[in-house]
Task: inverse folding
């Protein structure tokens, strides 16, 4: 039992990663990964929303009328996202401007509704909370990985700090402009999925 | 836990009865509303401080000064249509939070660089989809543009939204807004300004936004016309006296 509870946290990190295996939440993964900082904050925001929506709805699961359960889920998720958005605006204003509409769009992020519907409504609060954290981190981890390559190759920096030395630029090195556009994220996601499948033979389709 | 569910089942006729659903939704909505109202109110002050900082930074950025130098460099006041400095209940910075209302009331905030006499006028107008706004900084001759900052609520990225890019705004410095004594503003010209006076290039594919930008600059700066003429007049007299000596 203990082991199973722990697995709900670790599984989504790799074996059952929301982006790499379930292919959920791709839209925001393409949109907010040009730089590491917004990708990082987005990952944290989704983790917070996913964890708390799972927890709250798992606590409420026995009282929710079946016929309006999707509406109840949406209200809880939307309320949490609004709170997260308000907190970002108050404490990391510049990042919240960069994320702009994507924070609001966490509401429609398939990962969160998917986890609530598939897991939280039929499991106890603790595993649900861990499942939410796991999925949020699994999502955020991939986002940060994509953003790492995009910022490094597209802008030559990481977290806004210049990494590629000036002398390389003088020698004729140029940043890859494609990395700043959404298609590059799709290519990087594709490569990561490829590597991931190669490492996990049981995920390969016949 | 089990007991509570049982009591709920008796209560209002069970979990899936209409009465229970109505009751459940009502309670849920009230709780969520209280929660959201509380968060929003408790964070409002901090959020407004951030927005105010952003506005201050935009003002100094239009003057080409460093971020955060607003408090040490800028003197702010409000003028009326006739160009006289007036006292208002709220500060010039507060006016930026409802700039179009402030314009409608005939109160126009001015931000002046204390050391050089360069002034910044906040401007506001309509783009294609929503509001556009910005700051126009003028050299101390009150004719040549020193720098501009524009921003928008929801113009199309890559098209109308280009007005918010430094590359687009770089066209403005050095342009003049007066033709003799007439305020002409800046023409935002379709197909390329090619060095014509008082003109910059329009945004390709952003015709409506460009028109909005042109109207915004003209309409808003016209409100400061008398203020600028008053400022120039004593300066002109001074030159005359100096010459007479």
Result:
């Amino acid at each position: 039992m203990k082991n199973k509870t722990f697995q709900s946290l670790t599984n989504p990190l790799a074996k059952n990663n929301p982006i790499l295996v379930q292919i959920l939440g791709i839209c925001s993964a393409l949109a907010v990964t040009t730089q590491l900082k917004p990708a990082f904050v987005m990952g944290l925001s989704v983790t917070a929303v996913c964890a708390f929506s799972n927890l709250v709805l798992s606590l409420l699961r026995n009282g929710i009328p079946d016929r309006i359960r999707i509406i109840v889920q949406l209200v809880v998720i939307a309320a949490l996202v609004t709170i997260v958005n308000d907190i970002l605006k108050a404490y990391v204003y510049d990042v919240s401007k960069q994320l702009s509409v994507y924070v609001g769009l966490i509401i429609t992020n398939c990962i969160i509704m998917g986890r609530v519907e598939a897991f939280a409504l039929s499991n106890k609060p603790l595993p649900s909370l861990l499942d939410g954290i796991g999925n949020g981190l699994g999502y955020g981890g991939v986002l940060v990985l994509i953003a790492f390559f995009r910022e490094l190759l597209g802008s030559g920096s990481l977290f806004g700090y210049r990494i590629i030395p000036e002398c390389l630029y003088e020698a004729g090195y140029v940043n890859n402009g494609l990395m700043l556009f959404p298609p590059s994220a799709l290519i990087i996601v594709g490569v990561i999925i490829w590597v991931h499948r190669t490492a996990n033979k049981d995920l390969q389709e016949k | 836990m089990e007991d509570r569910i049982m009591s709920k089942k008796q209560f209002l006729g069970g979990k899936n009865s209409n009465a229970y659903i109505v009751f459940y939704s009502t309670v849920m909505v009230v709780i969520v509303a209280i929660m959201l109202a509380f968060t929003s109110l408790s964070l409002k002050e901090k959020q407004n401080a951030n927005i105010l900082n952003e506005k201050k930074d935009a003002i100094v950025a239009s003057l080409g000064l460093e971020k955060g130098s607003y408090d040490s460099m800028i003197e702010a006041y409000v003028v009326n249509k006739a160009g006289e400095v007036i006292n208002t209940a709220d500060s010039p910075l507060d006016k930026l939070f409802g700039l179009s209302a402030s314009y409608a009331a005939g109160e126009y905030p001015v931000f002046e660089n204390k050391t050089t006499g360069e002034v910044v006028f906040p401007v506001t107008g309509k783009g294609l989809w929503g509001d556009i706004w910005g700051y126009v900084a003028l050299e101390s001759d009150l004719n040549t543009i020193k720098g501009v900052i524009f921003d928008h609520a929801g113009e199309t990225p890559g098209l109308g939204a280009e007005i918010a890019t430094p590359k687009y705004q770089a066209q403005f410095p050095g342009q003049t807004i007066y033709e003799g004594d007439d305020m002409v503003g800046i023409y935002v010209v379709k197909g390329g300004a090619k060095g014509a006076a008082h003109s910059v290039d329009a945004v390709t594919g952003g015709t409506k936004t460009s028109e909005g930008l042109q109207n915004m600059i003209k309409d808003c700066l016209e409100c400061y016309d008398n203020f600028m003429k008053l400022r120039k007049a004593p300066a002109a007299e001074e030159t005359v006296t100096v010459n007479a000596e």
Summary: The first strand of chain A starts at residue 157 and ends at 158. Residues 12-145 of chain A form one domain.
